[in-house]
Design goal:
Length: 200
């Protein structure tokens, strides 16, 4: 009957409207998620550029006033490390582009001790002029994991740079521990810490 046909058409229209509404909602959520990711990327990029630039600026100011040749050499090494960090960050951005184009991050067996040793040396370059104690605890034996060495180094370097930036007195620590089948890298400091609302 006509009434039945009209009811079916109405039901079909309502179903189509509901489907299109759901598609629009999903598209809106996707756009919002992408917008948040872009904002987070900009904030992260700003942080990753600001940290080595701050270290370079601080080292240059100390270099101008430092008469001791050995300390000047340490500061120059630290500045070189900062420049290397900026170069690695640019490579990271290139890697992100590759990943978005369908590439992958290469992971291979690496020794965490040899990965952390140069980072410890770089950190000591900055703790000595600031008269901060540096507590380094690395195992004497190799600790093998499967990871991307460059990205892992950048993660730990970022933590150490934050510790340096926010610690004026006391100490900074870098520890590598093994428990069962896990390797734990721990960075500690006596600085201001993270505000409780920012911890999540």
């Amino acid at each position: 009957t006509l009434q039945k046909q009209l009811a079916e058409e109405k039901s079909n229209i309502e179903k189509t409207v509901a489907e299109r509404t759901e598609e629009l909602r999903a598209a809106q959520e996707k756009l919002q998620a992408e917008d948040r990711m872009k904002q987070e990327f900009i904030a992260l990029s700003s942080h990753n550029l600001r940290t080595p630039l701050s270290v370079l600026k601080w080292s240059m100011e100390l270099l101008k006033k430092e008469p001791d040749e050995a300390t000047r050499s340490q500061l120059l090494l630290g500045m070189e490390s900062g420049i290397t960090h900026l170069d690695e960050f640019i490579k990271d951005i290139s890697t992100i582009n590759d990943l978005e184009a369908g590439g992958s991050i290469e992971a291979k067996a690496i020794n965490l001790v040899t990965v952390l040793e140069p980072l410890a040396a770089q950190t000591r370059t900055y703790t000595d002029p600031k008269q901060l104690a540096f507590d380094l605890q690395l195992p004497s034996r190799p600790v093998m994991v499967k990871a991307n060495e460059l990205w892992l180094q950048n993660c730990v370097r970022n933590l150490l740079n934050n510790a340096l930036k926010f610690t004026e007195h006391g100490s900074i620590g870098l520890t590598l521990e093994t428990t069962d089948s896990k390797a734990v890298i721990r960075v500690s400091d006596t600085g201001t810490g993270i505000r409780e609302e920012e911890i999540p």
